[in-house]
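Reviewer 2 asked us to include a model.

Predict the structure of this chain.
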Amino acid sequence: MPILRGQLDPQGQAFVPVALYPSGPRRQALQAAGQPAPAPAVFNGLIDTGATVTIIDPRVRQALNLVPYRIRPIGVPAQPVPVYALWYKLDLVVFDPRAATNVSLYTPMLSVVETPISHSGADVLVGCDVLSRCFFGYGGTTRDFILAF
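Predicted model (structure tokens):
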């Protein structure tokens, strides 16, 4: 079982590098239309065990030229009513840049929500839709974390 190890930041948050790609069908549709598919891009991901789904900042959508496939209400803490949000499909890879071998957690065709999150220091909040496929260990006293998949 591959393990990604990291240090918590001063606020106790676990950041991981995340590579994002437009979904496979989106890349194929762009190529069929004679358009280049956006290159995968690496973003700053924050492990968020309180998020049911993975969330991307609008900058991510712009960088990958994503097109929404639906609008749907989501529950947001501190909001008394649901908020309507755009949903996108993409391929997500959490990886360890220090690993000598390809240690990564690949999640294809992931449904993600767009909402501004750059104030958190992250471009992507990695939610329980991804975390349910692995083990996340948080060492508050040792200031480290592990992600095993």
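The chain has a mean pLDDT of 92. The two ends are 6 Å apart (CA to CA). We have added this to the supplementary material.
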